[in-house]
Design a protein that fits this description.
Layout lengths: L1 E2 L6 E2 L6 E6 L3 H4 L4 H4 L5 H4 L2 H13 L3 E7 L10 H6 L9 E2 L2 E2 L21 E5 L10 H7 L4 E7 L1 H14 L3 E10 L3 H16 L3 E3 L1 H8 L9
Parallel strand pairs: 3-4, 3-8, 4-7, 8-9, 9-10
Antiparallel strand pairs: 1-2, 5-6
């Protein structure tokens, strides 16, 4: 089983060894009034990938495959948030501040929820991560090993920060990773394109990239024509 990818075809094992990873599709980053907007970004850019991520999510659900959602968040007392991270944003609202959707990037606050279109099912894994990467101070690697997952299809936001960091962390741990090009987005289009080029450079030094249409065709889940 193969996916038409760059820099060359991405080979898939038994589908039970593949997981879809959806990074940080949470209200704090995608909706007005959250952390993304507080940093001066146009959050509507990120909303454009929601239908494509939903197609991938539906395909994985239909085939009963492993699905992992991540949420960047911190404890209410900020004990898991370095002071350097709190200070660095310098936006209109910083981590822990009270905003229109509750306290910014705080676990359990309304703004920290995954958007309703992609809300996890009870059977799906949700990783609450205090860092950019999904492996940092979480049990993600343990869960992947328990399920004998070897291949990760990575989506979400933002491409150059949490998505890329997670992919690099996974690569260092021996996972074969593919970033789905039109199921990830950045507030800065040039950053997204640079990240895609970096991860597949040097014969895929970090991993592969492919369109959602190619992924769905390779999985045999949804016809590629469904993705625009």
């Amino acid at each position: 089983m193969r996916i038409d990818a760059q820099p060359y075809d991405y080979e898939l094992p038994n589908l039970s060894q593949v997981a879809l990873v959806i990074i940080d599709m949470q209200r704090d980053f995608l909706e007005p009034g959250g952390f993304g907007e507080a940093l001066g970004n146009d959050v509507h850019r990120l909303q454009a990938i929601v239908p494509t991520v939903k197609l991938l999510l539906d395909s994985f659900r239909a085939q009963n495959l492993t699905i992992i959602h991540t949420i960047e968040c911190h404890l209410p007392d900020l004990s898991d948030c370095p002071v350097s991270k709190q200070k660095r944003g310098r936006g209109t609202l910083n981590i822990g501040d009270l905003g229109p959707m509750g306290r910014i990037l705080i676990k359990g606050e309304p703004g920290n929820d995954i958007i309703s279109e992609l809300a996890p099912l009870p059977s799906e894994i949700v990783i609450h991560k205090p860092g950019k990467g999904a492996f940092c101070r979480t049990n993600l690697e343990v869960l992947l090993n328990e399920r004998e997952i070897t291949h990760l299809l990575i989506t979400g936001v933002t491409t150059e920060v949490c998505v890329q960091t997670t992919m690099r962390e996974a690569n260092d741990r021996g996972y074969e990773c593919l970033m789905v090009e039109d199921a990830t987005e950045s507030y800065f289009p040039e950053f997204k394109q640079a990240t895609l080029a970096m991860v597949r450079a040097q014969s895929g030094i970090v991993g592969w990239t492919a369109s959602a249409a190619a992924v769905l065709q390779g999985l045999g889940g949804v016809k590629s024509a469904a993705v625009r």
